[in-house]
Amino acid sequence: MEEGNWDKIHIKNLEVFGKHGVLPEENRLGQKFQINAVLYLSVRKAGLKDDLTKTIHYGDASRFMADFMVRHTFQLIEAAAEQMAKEMLLKFPLMEKIRLEIKKPWAPIGLPLEEVSVEIERGWHRAYIAIGSNLGEREQLIRQGIEGLRDLEGCTVEQVSGIITTKPYGVTDQPDFLNGMVALRTLLLPEELLGQLHQIEQEAGRRRSLRWGPRTLDLDIIFYDHAVIDTKELQIPHPDMQNREFVLKPLAEIVPYYRHPLFGKTVQEMLAAHSVKG
């Protein structure tokens, strides 16, 4: 289902108890909170089959949120909302996204008000990660990189391409590379994901010295949903990917019809155009 076309389950004004707040007495005595949640998913199969296993039981979701508020103590409702959203997405795999509002009717600010609240929206994203190595035990390092992605909290490796051997790009006086592609479902934002990729590279002995130079392990974000990002630290889609067969070939194996958000061409079309030029 395309993003923006998800069905929705609404949970409104769920009253829960929690010991959340900056003041010590709030953590000691606790107070009432209210939760509004919108769960984004597809209920098509549940509706056609009248099958509860094909949807999210709103009773289970409500009890999970109420229990979460009792089990944890946060100073900020911002933190409560952030952590609850993450736990909900991990707990209910059919959920693609959640909009969550935590309301605090008795906020102790010494002024008359009805309530204060924090509302956030969090969800799963799909990223395509190029993986490469041309130093040391290349096969083992590729496996280590993939396992590192599997071990990331809030991430699921959905698919791994075949591994191909390619000539080096840019600086050609170096050993051949092993290259592949990983489809990753993730709760991490692009900058957060980039930081985790750098950590996995460092654990594999990666040292960033020469651009296009040899490396034990290289992990690059090629696509992240259909996002376009251009900062000093991060560029998505990955620049020059359309000219790199070692990126396009394994990417086409996984998502041949994924369309580049800037060029409008599919991965398969970009690979075909590169092959003609080559």
Looking at this protein, list some descriptive labels.
4-stranded antiparallel β-sheet, alpha+beta, 8 helices, 278 residues
Description:
With 278 residues, the chain is of the alpha+beta class. 32% of the residues lie in helices and 28% in strands. It has eight helices and eleven strands. The strands form three sheets. Strands 5, 6, 7, 8 and 9 form a five-stranded antiparallel β-sheet that branches. A hairpin with a 4-residue loop joins strand 10 (229-230) and strand 11. Helix 7 runs antiparallel to helix 8. The longest helix has 15 residues, at 77-91. The protein is elongated and about 70 Å long. It starts with 6 loop residues before the first strand and ends with a helix. The model has no long low-confidence stretch (mean pLDDT 91).
Q: SSE order in H/E notation?
A: EHEHHHEEEHEEEHEEEHH
Low-confidence parts? none
C-alpha geometry: elongated
Computed over alpha carbons, the radius of gyration is 23 Å
Task: Give the strand content.
Answer: 25-35%
- What is the CA-CA span between the terminal residues? 36 Å
Q: Enumerate how many helices there are, as a single number.
A: 8
Helix content: 25-40%
Average of the residue pLDDT scores: 91
- Quaternary organization: single chain
Question: Number of DSSP strands?
Answer: 11
| Structural classification | alpha+beta
Main β-sheet description:
5 strands, antiparallel
